[in-house]
Write a structure and sequence with these properties.
Blueprint: H1 3-33, H2 36-40, H3 53-56
Length: 57
């Protein structure tokens, strides 16, 4: 393997790792948002829970 090939392989691996970490974080945030316990904790008469990922930031 040449140095150039190793360099591009390393860059690709790091990008794939960063994308996987970001995807996992988004998935976990979405799962936490969709848990029924959060909606059941609302005690108001006209309570609507409609959080989005941008609200979680």
């Amino acid at each position: 393997m040449t140095i150039k090939t190793r360099k591009y392989l390393k860059i690709f691996t790091l990008c794939a790792l960063a994308t996987a970490l970001y995807g996992t974080a988004v998935y976990r945030a979405e799962q936490a948002r969709l848990q029924p316990s959060m909606a059941a904790a609302c005690n108001h008469g006209q309570c609507t829970y409609s959080a989005t990922l941008s609200d979680l930031r």
